[in-house]
Structures are given as structure tokens and as C-alpha cells.
Write a structure and sequence with these properties.
Length: 486
């Protein structure tokens, strides 16, 4: 029997004003199409009418008001957006029945208003974009972007000049997206931005209602609300925070980790430790107290994993500065470290700094940092052997990856940038006398996808991507763990 398809709701659009407003209209329509709406060429066929207004001149305002009036008279269900949205009170005074009013470029607000006025019907047969939006990652983990741009001006970075200052999304819009993702199979939410700790500063941490409670546009509120979501099986999805600058309020996140709402994982891009280099980098945070705070965090959440990245060979970095970094790293005992050799990016202020570091010196410092951090990583992972950890399964293979690694292979993984796959091409004798035919690869709470290590499992029959399993750790190397479902 043929499947009867539900009819999608239809949106009518009246677009006034300049080419900029037209581009806005197109963007809004693209989003609405992606959310499962059809367009209506007339008032009569529309479930809701969107009027994109212009407020540049008085005559344009009048034209906008007339257009709103016409839409109300012809259809009755009207959402107003665009430049005149800034004068909501004028519109409300004349047309109290308008459903919602949003300002220019508030795409999410407009889409949210339409979603409310005429809820879409999910349709797996017709929707090009699935209900949870387009994703480039596997179904079981998703990146969740909470803001664009950045208010800092680090001298090696050109992001603010390309993306502009910090522009945070509304917390309820983020939570709605996260809820959809989790309902559609996401088991791990990776919170990203240029500066996660600064989330909401630009919108004065304005609270929004979410499930009957107020959620401020603030990292702590948002993290807590994300950690309260539930998967269809009733599990708490993993919430992993990336690009967290160590502002004082990061300390408030640690109790959420202790409660299990947020993963015990912090990705803090320190970039350097020497105060002189940090100053030349114009970095936002004062690193002086960081070692003390790290200790504090570990006292509260012993299994917290801290990842960071560092730049070596920044202009003016002396051997002394570099030594400072090495001893800082030795003391900090970070779990995961990525290192980069400084490269001048076109347009970055750092390019004009004096005393560039010669390439061979950069290379040598890079090696030294990688050797040290590889040793720390190997020691930290070795300490996990014999413990039982939580693992999220990424892939299940017919040939067990576990068997590809012979005993004593560990030294071959030494040094180098952390890579996504650590298989080094050595197909040694199987690890033991077990004859398993199914292996799996997953990640522990300490491993973000693509950038950190992995957990290789033997005897993984019956597991599938997206499963949470308890794993007994049997072995380790520089980046990865090896184990068996417990
Ligand atoms: S490196 Fe600095 S300027 Fe660039 S995005 Fe990060 S905090 Fe902002």
C-alpha cells in the first residue's frame, strides 16, 4: 500500500526593502524549506505570512505598515521581521494581532516564530534535510555551535576580522536544536564556538524560557540544561565543552561534572605558558593561577581530562620562554596536548612582530614538546589499565582492531601530532590466543572525536555505533586504550 504523505505547512512571504533585506528573506526561506515548509504564492494558501519590512525612510515604514495590514486582513496569521521590527511598539499599537515581531538578521527568532505559528510535519520521505538538520558527523555525535565570532584580538588570529565580534545564539534555540539531535540519535553533544566561556556576554546573558524554567545565555546555565536532556533510552547524553577559556566562572562548571551532567573534560586552548609570550600573543586569560586551579579541579573531579593546544616558535619566543613552557607542562600534567609550529597567517598582527624564530628551531621545539607530552599521555593512560571506564562506540569492525596491535608495540607510537588513527601499519601477531571476530572502536569520556585517542575493543559482538558500554581496560599506549566489554 502506498504511504500517504502528510502535507507540509505553507508560508507566504512579503519582502520589502533593499537588496540586503532580500538576502535576509532568502536566508529565512532557505531555513524554512530545510525545516519542512512549502511556500505559498498567495495569502489564501498560507498557514502563516511572513512580512520582511523596511524601516529606512518614513515612506518605507508606511509601506511596511500597509503591507502588514494587508496580510492581517487577507490571512490573519502574521509574523513580522526586518528593519521595522526594531519598532515593535509602533507595529503592536496598530496591529495587536501580529503573532510575533523580530528584528533584522534574527534568523533563528523568525524561524522559531514560524515554527510556533505553524508547526512543521516531519517527513522522512520528502525532507532533504532530516528533522535534526544536516549533519556531517556520524549520527551518534553532533557539534553544537553556540556562538559565532570572538571579542578577543589574539595577535596570531584573524578570526575576529573574518567572523566579527561574538554573536551568541539564544539559549532556547540551542536547546531546541540539541533536543532534536538527541531525539534523532545523538549520544554526544560537542559544544563549540570560538570562546565558549564568553557565551552570552554580547546578549547580556539574557534569559529565555525553556521547559517552564528560565535559562540564561550563560555557559553554566546552558551546560546544565544540556546535561539534563535525556536520550530515548533514558540515558544522559555526553556533553563535551570545547574552547573554554579559563575565566573564573569556569570553576562553576566543575560541580556539573561532578554531578555527571557534563563530561569531565575541558578543552582549554592555553597556547603558551610564558607570560612574556602570552602578552605578545595578546591572549585573553591570565595563566598565572591556572596550575593552582587545575589542582583544584582535579581535587573535585579526579578523572577530569584537560586537553589543550600550544604554539611553539611564536615571534620573540626565546629558549628561556620555551623552557618555561616545558616545565609548566611537566607540572600541569595535561591529558591531551596538540602542538603547532607558529605560522604567519595573512592579515595577523603577529606577523609584524620582531625576532621571528628560525624554522629549524621551531621544528626542534615542536619535537621536544611532543616528546614530553607523549610521555605524560602514555603514563596517564597506563594508569588506567585495570580500571573500568565508560565508552561510546564509534565503529564496529569485522576484523578486531585490538588484534592488530602486538604486545610491546607501544614504543612505535611515540611522538608526533595526535592523529585520528593510530594504526601504524604493523600487523603483528595477534595480541593473545583469543579468536575474536568482532572488534570495535570507541571513545572514553576523555576522548573527543578526531582530536584525542580511542579505545579499541575485542569481543565486541552485538555492539553498534552509538552504544554506551562499560569497558575493562587491559592495555594502553601513547594515545589509545585497549580493552574488553566488562
Ligand atoms: S585565537 Fe583569540 S582572537 Fe582568535 S578566536 Fe580564539 S580567542 Fe578569539
Amino acid at each position: 500500500m502506498a504511504t500517504k504523505l502528510p502535507t507540509p505547512p505553507r508560508v507566504g512571504m512579503v519582502s520589502l526593502g533593499c537588496p540586503k533585506a532580500l538576502v535576509d528573506s532568502e536566508r529565512i526561506l532557505t531555513k524554512l524549506r530545510a525545516s519542512g515548509y512549502d511556500m505559498s504564492p498567495d495569502y489564501a494558501g498560507a498557514d502563516v505570512v511572513l512580512v520582511n519590512t523596511c524601516g529606512f525612510l518614513d515612506s518605507a515604514k508606511e509601506e511596511s505598515l500597509e503591507a502588514i495590514g494587508e496580510a492581517i486582513a487577507e490571512n490573519g496569521r502574521v509574523v513580522v521581521t526586518g528593519c521595522m521590527g526594531k519598532e515593535a511598539d509602533v507595529i503592536r499599537a496598530r496591529f495587536p494581532d501580529v503573532l510575533a515581531i523580530t528584528g533584522p538578521q534574527q534568523y533563528e527568532d523568525v524561524v522559531a516564530a514560524v515554527l510556533e505559528a505553524a508547526p512543521p510535519v516531519a517527513n522522512a520521505y520528502l525532507d532533504l534535510v532530516p528533522e535534526q538538520g544536516l549533519k556531517l558527523t556520524p549520527r551518534h555525535y553532533s557539534y553544537l555551535k553556540i556562538s559565532e565570532g570572538c571579542n578577543h584580538r589574539c595577535s596570531f588570529c584573524i578570526i575576529p576580522s573574518i567572523r566579527g565580534d561574538l554573536a551568541s545564539r539564544r539559549p532556547d534555540a540551542i536547546l531546541r536544536e540539541a533536543e532534536k539531535l538527541v531525539a534523532a540519535g545523538t549520544r554526544e553533544l560537542l559544544v563549540i564556538s570560538q570562546d565558549t566561556s564568553a557565551y552570552g556576554v554580547d546578549i547580556r546573558h539574557q534569559p529565555r524560557e525553556w521547559k517552564g524554567a528560565e535559562v540564561r545565555a550563560h555557559m553554566t546555565d546552558l551546560a546544565g540544561a544540556l546535561g539534563s536532556l535525556k536520550t530515548p533510552e533514558g540515558d544522559t547524553p555526553w556533553v563535551r565543552l570545547h574552547y573554554v577559556y579559563p575565566y573564573p566562572h569556569v570553576d562553576q562548571i566543575i560541580p556539573l561534572m561532578a554531578e555527571g551532567l557534563v563530561l569531565p573534560y575541558l578543552d582549554i586552548p592555553f597556547q603558551h605558558a610564558s607570560p612574556k609570550v602570552l602578552k605578545a600573543m595578546r591572549r585573553p586569560a591570565n595563566e598565572a593561577k591556572v596550575l593552582e586551579r587545575l589542582k583544584n579541579w582535579r581535587a573535585q573531579v579526579p578523572d577530569i581530562a584537560v586537553r589543550s593546544s600550544f604554539v611553539v616558535g611564536f615571534p620573540g619566543e626565546t629558549e628561556e620562554d620555551f623552557q618555561y613552557l616545558l616545565s609548566w607542562l611537566e607540572e600541569a600534567q595535561l591529558d591531551r596536548v596538540g602542538a603547532f609550529r607558529f605560522e604567519p597567517v595573512e592579515g595577523a598582527a603577529a606577523n609584524d612582530l620582531p625576532d621571528p624564530v628560525p624554522e629549524e628551531v621551531k621544528e626542534e621545539r615542536f619535537r621536544r614538546v611532543m616528546d614530553l607530552t607523549a610521555r605524560i599521555s602514555a603514563e596517564k593512560l597506563a594508569a588506567k589499565v585495570g580500571t573500568t571506564i565508560d565508552v561510546l562506540i564509534d565503529t564496529v569492525d569485522a576484523v578486531p582492531p585490538y588484534a592488530q596491535y602486538g604486545e610491546g608495540n607501544h614504543a612505535k607510537h611515540g611522538g608526533g601530532v595526535i592523529e585520528t588513527s593510530h594504526f601504524d601499519g604493523h600487523l603483528d601477531a595477534p595480541h593473545s590466543s583469543h579468536h575474536h571476530d568482532v572488534g570495535a572502536t570507541g571513545r572514553s569520556k576523555a576522548d573527543a572525536p578526531e582530536i584525542d585517542g580511542e579505545v579499541h575493543l575485542r569481543d565486541a559482538a552485538g555492539l553498534k555505533p552509538g552504544d554506551f558500554v562499560k569497558v575493562l581496560v587491559e592495555d594502553s599506549d601513547v594515545h589509545d586504550l585497549y580493552g574488553v566489554p566488562a
